Amino acid sequence: MSLLEVRGLKTYFYTRRGVVKVLDGLNFALEPGQIVGLVGETGSGKSVTGFSILRLVRRPGRIVGGEVVFEGRDLLKLPEPQMAALRGRDIAMIFQNPRTALNPLITVGRFLEQVLHFRAGLPRNRTRDEAVRLLSAVHIPDPERRLSSYPHQLSGGMAQRVMIAAAVAARPKLLIADEPTTGLDVTVQAQIMRLLRELRDQTGTAQILITHDLGLASEVCDAIAVMYAGEIVEFAPTRTLFATPKHPYTRGLLASRPKLGQTGEIPGIRGAVPDLMNPPRGCRFHPRCPHAFTRCRVERPRPVYVSPDHYATCFLLEEEGHA
Fold first, then answer.
1. What's the DSSP call for residue 107?
2. What is the pLDDT along the chain (323 residues), one digit of tens a residue?
3. Bridge pairing between strands 73-74 and 91-94
4. What's the whole-model pTM score?
5. Who has the most CB within 10 Å: 58, 90, 308, 315?
């Protein structure tokens, strides 16, 4: 049984201008111990997916349909007290900007000790030693001294490591990392990616990595879900996706990555992510797709499996005989 199954998830934002259908029938699954990357351009719905799983969508947003099944229970049907008990314990999240999540008035040590006591249920007399162990596990040098540091005394990479330590404090079964390397230099980004993989290997925690960077996703993810305009357009094991991408959008993303020694202009995907208040009829990618034909403009494609663990939502695959 999958650890997590997202089925037909719909999250809409009700604005003065109209209804923005940020997620409009999202489907994917995550196996125990698996790391899945959610990749796509800004505005594709990646972060909203993470917040929807945890039921942390704020007004004017609202989850209006679908299921989020975690260990056999639909999280969308749980009473809020039960859902609150799951957050941080069974499902944890690392947010984009660690400095906004850290209280500037309390030390790293006090923050972690509170997390360990209230989320992990550790007795007060054991929280300090465990906080030191957590900081050591995320490769923060001189962890005992860092317990007395305030957030403004931490580098961006170190602040993110503290947030990762807090997220794994209760040994969650699922960790959602929302753009965890935003604003960090390339070297620190690579270190954070290695750390996430290392934590999975040591603890077995499944992870959803939300990122716009396919290169980063390739370093840590077992499989990748490519999102476009609130939908998954392709899902495949990482190596398969890079070797044999099937959806035109995935191919465009891969082609637009800078390559070592490349000269001249980097090819991009024409156009922009559509207005989700008035999304295109049919395939949402068709206005930007170089292969679009009449059917793409009037029908919404369904997933077509090219192998048991690789599918894409594209009529071209049916034309090629994969249906």
1. -
2. 799 999 999 999 999 999 999 999 999 999 999 999 999 998 899 999 999 999 999 999 999 999 999 999 999 999 999 999 999 899 999 988 777 778 899 999 999 999 999 888 889 999 999 999 999 999 999 999 999 999 999 988 899 999 999 999 989 999 999 998 887 888 888 888 888 999 899 889 999 999 988 888 998 999 999 999 999 999 999 999 999 999 999 999 998 876 655 555 666 788 888 999 999 999 999 999 999 999 999 999 999 999 999 999 999 998 776 65
3. unpaired
4. 0.91
5. 315
* 230 Cβ contact partners less than 8 Å away, ≥ 6 residues apart: 21, 22, 23, 24, 25, 26, 44, 45, 276, 279, 284
By C-alpha distance, which of 240, 301, 248 is closest to 270? Answer: 248
Q: How far, in Å, CA of 49 to CA of 9, rounded?
A: 9
